[in-house]
Design brief:
Aspartate Aminotransferase, domain 2, alpha/beta, 39% helix, 7-stranded mixed beta sheet, binds pyridoxal-5'-phosphate
Amino acid sequence: MTGFIDRDRAVIMHTYSRLPVEIAAGDGVYLTDTSGKTYLDFFGGLAVNSLGYGYPSVREAVHAQVDRYMHLSNLFPQEPQIALAERLVAASGFDKVYFANSGAETMEAAFKLVRRWGSTRDRSAIFAFSHAFHGRTMAGLSLMDAEKYRAGYGPFLEGCQTLPYNDIAALRSAVGPSTSAVVLECIQGEGGVLPLDPAFAAAIRDLRDQYGFLVVADEIQTGMGRTGRFLASEHYDFTPDIVTLAKSLGGGLPLGAVLVRSELAEIFGPGGHGSTFGGNPVACAAGIAVMDALANGVMENARIVGELLQKGLMELKSRFPNHITDVRGRGCMQGILCTHPAQFVSDHCLRHGLLVNVTRGAVVRLLPPLIITPAHVETALGHLHNAFSDWHLPA
Ligand SMILES: *Cc1c(COP(=O)(O)O)cnc(C)c1O
């Protein structure tokens, strides 16, 4: 074996269940393995590769910035950070940006901002929701309830509690004047592509009006145009106070951003928070290219092609009622809820050249690049159809 799967096992800590594929290169919406087999990628680097692989303007921006400088201390104002923040502010309607390097770091920053804001207002309670995913730091884990992420890492941070998602009565009886924040995903990603109920969003808005707490939208997976709007929260009748972005923001490079309104922008103050690498200029240069691509038709494409994909998945659901109980999501973030653990589907697709992901056991999750065409959707639906046809359920 000349492959690198064995070498990986030998020297890399086993924190991921690796796919048995050795990727050699990526091009557009396709990956090629070392044997020359190509895969249509509806896995999308877990929502990072929203422009697929080798998107020309991202590559050009990265190369150009590498030649200028790859790092300056955050004690300098940096043009790529500023230009990206200007685009984020314009696209989102928020006022100011804090840059981090990853999703978990943006959640950590949002958590600290909420804590400091609450510290002078006698508010310490932070609520999040069951099956949420907010990253692997202790702050993230403190906002999650899934044992698979938390086991053995306690004690967790004080004042954090998870409530059942989309349960208005539970939320109403939990929040009050000592609540500092409610943290949510507008579509739970790892939690099974589960959308926020519009009535629940309205209840959050009304309770916030009543009690004055902050709403943090974790848009690390749902943001950056994935659902056909820049932020998934735009599909709802409420505006969060704090939004976190990461995943596709850096076009494949590590980058995260926290967006706030001006009222919250002074909470940290100089020295109140920071990161050596946060807002790395090369990552920000890539981010600028991503934002420009979204504005120049990619986000619109995500909406149109996403609708096509969802329509096709609905047809699949009516054709395989014993296998599929629900199709849910928005735009280029779709989940197929199966009646049984769905590993068979992802394995079958992998063998036939389509990459899909399974989350929470029975949900086939599709996170294709936002640049897919109707022809790619047709191909993917064909593979999925074949997988469900071949899937003989236990009697
Ligand atoms: C991926 C993800 C995170 C964590 O991001 P990392 O970059 O892996 O730290 C947090 N929240 C959501 C909703 C995510 O999808």
